[in-house]
Write a structure and sequence with these properties.
Blueprint: E1 2-10, E2 16-25, H1 27-45, E3 49-54, E4 59-62, H2 64-70, H3 74-77, H4 91-102, E5 110-115, E6 121-132, E7 138-147, H5 149-171, E8 174-180, E9 185-188, H6 190-195, H7 207-213, H8 219-232, E10 237-244, E11 250-262, E12 265-275, H9 277-353, H10 360-392, E13 400-403, H11 404-421, E14 425-430, E15 437-440, H12 442-459, E16 464-471, E17 476-483, H13 490-495, H14 507-511, H15 517-527, E18 531-537, E19 541-549, E20 551-552, E21 575-579, H16 583-595, E22 599-603, H17 606-615, E23 625-629, H18 637-645, E24 655-659, H19 664-673, E25 677-680, H20 685-700
Length: about 700
Amino acid sequence: MVSLTCALNRSEAGELRGLTMLIRDETQLKTAESAADRLAKIVESSTDAIVSMDLDGTIVSWNSAAQDLFGYAPNEAIGKSVLMLVPDDQAPEESIILGNLASGLRVPPYDATRRHRDGRSVSVSVTMSPIFDASNKIVGGSLIARDIAERERAQAALRESQTRLSYAMDVAHMGTWELNIDSGTFERSLRHDQCYGYTSLQPLWTLDTYYRAIHPDERDAVLKGWQDTVITAQRDWHGEFRVIWPDGSEHWLSAYAGVFKDDQRATRVLGVVADITERKLAEQAIVRAQRLESENRQMLEDRYALERDRREAAEALAESQRNANHAKTEFLATINHELRTPLNGILGMAELARSPDLDHTVRNSYINQIVISGKEMADLMTQVLDMTKIEAGRLQLEQVIFDLPGLMNGVRGLYGPIARARELDFVYDADPKLPRLVFGDPVRLRQILANFISNALKFTSNGSIRLSVKLVGANRFRFEVIDTGVGIDTDAQQRLFQPYVQADASTSRQYGGTGLGLYICRELAQLMQGMVGVSSTPGEGSRFWAEVELASVAQIDQGNASNEERPLADVSGLRILVVDDNIINREVVSTMLERANARVSQAEDGSKAVEQVRAASAPAQAFDLVLMDMRMPVMGGIEATRLIREMPHGQLLPIIAFTADTMSDDRDRVFEAGANAVLSKPIDKIKLFETIESAVANKVR
């Protein structure tokens, strides 16, 4: 590009003499102007504030971004000192920077605070550069200011976030670490090392440091998980494990590791670690608490079950006691009736027998009725005493040799006439293989049979009663009583052998009885290694049976056997002292003995008995035997027996005790006092004479 300038040449007279032309190449100028124009546009369109100034700091140019940043319009800023933008407290420092710029010293970029037209502060990043002329002389400077408010806000937010994260990690006992896989070096936070028990950052930390810190029981598993997950699979990893601190204490840690890759290759691992000991201890405490809760719940359930069982047992016991009390109440009422009935007969017949105008036959009839009623009362008392022994577990059997067929014939002879008197057939069947002599308790066996037959007689109004015995084993015998009476229903049969129980409540009112007989039979049979039972059909009759063990006796002298008709033992000539506070008892026993030609003396209490024995010390006056009641006023039989045993002539004196107490404890006390034998009231005459004979014979030996 060129510029053309033409000029006419004239003479002094004004005549045209020629033409002068000037041609100038303006390419560079235009290029420079174009560049300057472009630069001006760039400056104007820049988002950074661009300000030019002379060496004095006077503003020469001011772009739109400067107006936006500082609030001044170009006409307000140009010609003013650039220091108007600087806060007063920073003006001296800024003047120094301007001086350095004018001197050609390099001014590095810096962050500063500037003042807005409205007075507020503006955070900027400042870059200052010198302006040179064509001769490379500094003629001014340029200032570029960039608004960094957003950056500062972001940095502040980042710092706040980092502070919070650091605080949160510190509160959570979490430490950070970074592993450079290529170099194998670790960068850690202080909290990281504290999680492993160190109070300060350790100068050296390697994988071996981890290995030694991890609990031996978990060491291999943790490192294998790290190797397989992070190193081999290059995946994130998490683990919880125990570590041993340098002081030997055990702690729980939770570790997280994140893998960072470059070109699909793991280069770094970043992670956090937290001390979770308190959490683990809490979890263990919860587990223990849950276990204890479960155990306590089970204990409570067991206790509730025990309490329920105890309550049910107590209720059952109370119900049983109520039933037992009710049964005993009915039993006592029945006993009262059963005792008063023969007692009334005894008293009534005795009153009639006292009449002076009775002939001998009538008087004997009354006396026989008195004897029968007395035996009924004795049987009732025997049942009550047997029941007492059973409940105390002290019922005992005698073991003697007796004639079994003789016993059966005696039972038949006793009850056969009674049955025939009631127009009933009485049939007796005996096994032909029945042994004659057996070993057992004949009195208790007879008691069982008597009870069965008495019941049959009581409940049979027509037909027959059958008594049978057969051998069902080597030493086992079955006794049966079969009747054609009223029979018993099935429910009642289940209760028959219980104490105080009869077939129904009306039985005792209609037929009498205590409700003890069959129960006693059951207990006696069990003592004989046997059992009892019943089968019955209402309206057709009943079958009562007992199976017992009786040892057979072969080739034994007949004289050793018990005999229903054996003669009385010989007591003639014996001098006997009878001691009893009851005058009737003394007279009865004394009369029995005197009729057998014994010489009898009497004493009404133990002290008088002791006096008589002491006084009769001479051989001609000495007693051969003392019959001593145990319960007496003034002095009882036990004390009297002890005192007699202390006398020289009383040490070998036979003493036979009379007692209404049949419990084994009472009998033991009697024997401990020195008695030779004990007889229970009422006194059996045959048993009395045999005991006297045996005691005297043993003294002689």
